[in-house]
Write a structure and sequence with these properties.
It is a single chain. This protein starts with 27 loop residues before the first helix and ends in an 8-residue tail after the last helix. 0% of the residues are buried. The protein has 1 helix and no strands. By secondary structure, the chain is mainly α. The chain has a domain of 61 residues. The mean pLDDT is 84. It is 63% helix and 0% strand. This is NHS 2 isoform X1.
Length: 95
């Protein structure tokens, strides 16, 4: 059962925050600048999360590759052992 590892919550992009909370904007340029800054921060957070997810996937894939290589080596060894047993004449059991 998968568990949630990350929680990504969208933030308001057009609300003023920090020291200027409650302050009125003087013009539309201030609103646009604040909104653009908030959108860029969210994009940065989203990029950081995506890099984390991709690094985790890379680790899982490397682990799977290592395990499948080990399994392949075991199968090759088993095939050699079986072919060696198949070439020998059957053992006769005396009662």
């Amino acid at each position: 059962m998968p568990f949630c590892k990350r929680t990504i919550v969208p933030k308001d992009v057009c609300k003023s925050g920090g020291k200027s909370r409650g302050a009125m904007f003087t013009d539309l340029v201030d609103v646009c600048g604040l909104t653009l800054c908030a959108v860029l921060r969210q994009l940065s957070d989203l990029s950081r999360q995506s890099v984390s997810i991709l690094e985790e996937l890379e680790g899982e894939l490397a682990s799977i590759c290592y395990r499948s290589g080990a399994l392949e080596n075991k199968l090759i060894s088993l095939q050699k052992h079986i072919s060696a047993l198949a070439t020998k004449p059957p053992v006769k059991i005396k009662f």
